[in-house]
Structure formats: C-alpha cells, structure tokens
Amino acid sequence: MSGRRFGVAGAAALVVGHFSGMIDLIALPVWVGALVERYGFSPQQAGILVTLFLLGAVAASTVAAPRLNSMNGRAFSAGGFFVAAAAFFAAAGQTVFTPLAGLHLLAGASVGTALSMVHGTMAHTANPHRLYAMAGIALGLFAIILLAAIPQLLIAFGGQSLFFVFAGVMTVAAVTCALFFPHAEPVQDHKKQPFSRAVWFTILAISIMTFNQAMVFSFVEVIGKSRGFSAEHVLAVLIALGFVNFVLPSPLAAILQNRISATLVTQIGPLLQIVLAIIITSATAFPVWAPSAAVFVSVQIFTHTFAFGHLTKLDPTGRAAAATPAMLMIGAALGPSAGGALGQNFGYPSLGIAAVFVGLASIFFFTKGKHA
C-alpha cells in the first residue's frame, strides 16, 4: 500500500464521490416508494428498475476495478458522475417503464465507473479504514438531508423531483471530482496474480450481506405503511435513520479501528442484521418496529468499514477495494427484485425468513476470509 496523504481537498473529493455514488444505500426506500406510489409501478417493477441501476454499476465496476492503476481517476470519476447526472435529468421527463429502465441502467454504469475510481484511490491512502469511516459519516449527514427532503419534494412537485435531486447530487460530485480528485501514483498491479481465497471469500460475504440489506431495506417504507403506521410516523423513522447513520456507525468504526478485530465485527454484523430484519418484517407494534428500522442501515455501514479496511490489507494494489461498487451492488441489485417478489407473493414476513438463511451464509464466508 502506498500510504499517501492527499490533503484536505483531495480527501474531500473522495468523500463527496463516496456519498454520491452510494446514494442507493440510503435512498432505496424513497426510491422504490416513489416508483410505486407516484409512477404506479408494481413493487416488482419498481424493484427491477432499481436493480437495473445497480446491475449497471456492477458491470462497470467489474470492468474498471482491474484496470484501476492504468486509468485516469479524475477523468473517469468526473465523467462518470456527469453522465449519471444527464441520465437522471432525462429520467425526470419520463413516466414509461422501458425508457426509465434504460436510463437507470446507464446511470448505474456511469456511477459504477466513478465509484470504482473513488474507492480504489481510497485504498492508496495512509489509513483507508479511517477515510472510509469519515466518508461514512458524510453519508450519514447526507442521509438526514436526503430522507427529510425527498418525501416533501415528492408531495410538492411529484415523482420527477426524485430524479432531479439525484441529478443534482451527481452534478455536484462531477464538478468536485473534476476540480479536486487526488492523483495517486501508480502501484505495482500484479495483473497476472489472482486474488487470494481470503479476498474472494470476503468479497462474497460483503455481497451477500448487502443483498440482505437491500432485500429488506428497499421495502421499509412500504412495510411500515402496510402495518397501518401513518405516513408521518414512517417518515420520522427514515429521518431518525439518517441521524443514527450520522452519529453511530462510522464514528464508532473509526474509534474502534484498533480496539476490535475486523473478523469479530464481520461475524457479529450479519447476525445483528438477521435479528433486525425479522423485527422489521414481522413487528406490528410501532414502538418495536421503529427502532429496528432506524438502526438497520447502520449495521451494514459499521460492518463494511471494517471489511473495507481488511480488504486493503489483503490486496495492497487497491484492485479489490476498487471493486467495492461491484461487491456491494451485486447484492443490492438482486435484493430489491427478490424482496418485491417475496413480498408480493408471500407477504413481507417472508423477507425476514429469507434474511436468516442469507445472513448465516454471510457469516460463514466472512469467517472463511479472515486470513490471507
């Protein structure tokens, strides 16, 4: 690992790129909710649209990550976010499934390319774990703003406001990366040297855990309303979720970096995720449901911060870290459509049952990936 320090501006560009590119992690409920309620799509159709965005990101990241150290990070990050902004602006003018599907796919591919540059460059910093934690704090603050603003904008201006917000976020990221994205010196790439089994096990475990996250979290808003909770109460939970993400997982991950092993965190994290998923999908009492929904995302953020730092140690070239969008979004891509299909055909408690088996698989692979 080169262990470079990029300065405040360079680090800030990476942080902005991170929370812009990870918009799906925090916006899934309002994204799916808007597609169902404002556009009239079925839960399964809404899940497919978001899945197309994520599949585009996976494909692009899979192509870009192995080529990290031969690509111009500034050009590809800024260009990727700019194309994503254009795709979302175009989506704001559409209401039909087919064109929206194509634009979701294009936006995802563009974001995946940009985000691979961001995460791969993060891996070359002196302390990738800490920078990723700082980016997580920014993501939490961003979630507060986004989850508070979007539902109000949807009420005032309709479904298209969702895509205008996304386009604005991507535009800010494009400009920031164009101006301040740091230059990372080339690293010996070892292109012919495959990843170790530990790297592959860790990548698989992260993907599986993210699948669980997306399968349940995509339908938090829909589940809450189906339980008879008022729209205002569900919105309050989403806002609380943003505050929890801001003050809890990433600061805690930064503080505990050298005090708790990554292996222990990656075993406990999926277990907590299982428990919370069962409560979210089956609880009928708001005082029980609300706290579980509010902390659900923070478990993923905290666990993945440790997993990210662990990957940068297993792979000093940064290629594995650059594949972060692929490993996160392949799970997230399948989650919304799987959750929609299960919820629509078997009821939302079935998501909790599925989460148990998926979570146990994640724990298994994290345990297998603890050694290089």
TrEMBL record:
<dbReference type="Pfam" id="PF07690">
    <property type="entry name" value="MFS_1"/>
</dbReference>
<feature type="transmembrane region" description="Helical">
    <location>
        <begin position="100"/>
        <end position="119"/>
    </location>
</feature>
<feature type="transmembrane region" description="Helical">
    <location>
        <begin position="268"/>
        <end position="286"/>
    </location>
</feature>
<feature type="transmembrane region" description="Helical">
    <location>
        <begin position="348"/>
        <end position="367"/>
    </location>
</feature>
<protein>
    <submittedName>
        <fullName>MFS transporter</fullName>
    </submittedName>
</protein>
<feature type="transmembrane region" description="Helical">
    <location>
        <begin position="46"/>
        <end position="64"/>
    </location>
</feature>
<keyword id="KW-0812">Transmembrane</keyword>
<feature type="transmembrane region" description="Helical">
    <location>
        <begin position="12"/>
        <end position="34"/>
    </location>
</feature>
<feature type="transmembrane region" description="Helical">
    <location>
        <begin position="234"/>
        <end position="256"/>
    </location>
</feature>
<keyword id="KW-0472">Membrane</keyword>
<keyword id="KW-1133">Transmembrane helix</keyword>
<dbReference type="InterPro" id="IPR036259">
    <property type="entry name" value="MFS_trans_sf"/>
</dbReference>
<feature type="transmembrane region" description="Helical">
    <location>
        <begin position="76"/>
        <end position="94"/>
    </location>
</feature>
<feature type="transmembrane region" description="Helical">
    <location>
        <begin position="161"/>
        <end position="182"/>
    </location>
</feature>
<feature type="transmembrane region" description="Helical">
    <location>
        <begin position="131"/>
        <end position="155"/>
    </location>
</feature>
<dbReference type="InterPro" id="IPR011701">
    <property type="entry name" value="MFS"/>
</dbReference>
<feature type="transmembrane region" description="Helical">
    <location>
        <begin position="194"/>
        <end position="214"/>
    </location>
</feature>
